Amino acid sequence: MAHELTIGQLARRIGVNVQTIRYYERLKLLRPSARRPSGYRLYSHEEERRLRFIKNAQTLGFTLREIAELLALRVASTARCGEVREKARAKLVQVESKVDDLQALARALNSLIRACRVGQPTGYCPILMSFEEETRDGTKKGIGKG
Fold it and tell me: What contacts 68, CB < 8 A, 6 or more positions away?
């Protein structure tokens, strides 16, 4: 094989930890293409591409389970781009929901910060007091809650 990398070389090339590669192997997301007689794992260009695929998909927010599904679609001869598009669309909906949640969190924090009077004793601090308040649904209120 013309393009064989050891696990360390592959890790450096992609910018991941060797343990990350071993973890992906345990999850069956990646596997060495060969082994040296000494037992060292060897990876081909295809495994390098596959690892890059995994890391880039993670960057876009896909979970390892979702990545496994995308990898299966990548090699399935009957799969169509529309299936991948639907998975990407579903991920976009999740991301947009998280953005909405983070914007609500930012508004809540801004409101608390504006209400805070720097010279007040902490016993009257609106930020600390808000963490003890109950929400409309009867649960305790805190960061990230309405």
Answer: 27, 28, 29
* Token pair 């508004």 in the structure block, residue: 107
Domain that residue 29 falls in: 1-60
Q: Are 62 and 24 in contact (CB under 8 A)?
A: no
Does residue 4 contact residue 33 with C-beta atoms inside 8 Å? yes
Point out which residues pair with 140 in neighbouring strands: 134
Residue type present at position 80? R
23 burial (CB, 10 Å; 0-12 / 13-18 / 19+) is: middle
Q: How many Å apart are CA 5 and CA 48, to the nearest integer?
A: 9
Domains of the chain: total: 1
Mean per-residue pLDDT over the chain, rounded = 90
Taking residues 122-134, what's their average pLDDT?
88
Tell which residue, 73, 33, 78, has the closest CA to residue 53.
Answer: 73
Q: Would 37 be classed as within a structural domain?
A: yes
- 51 versus 142: the higher-pLDDT residue is 51
> Do the domain assignments include residue 94?
no
Domain annotation covers residue 48: yes
Q: Is residue 42 part of a domain?
A: yes
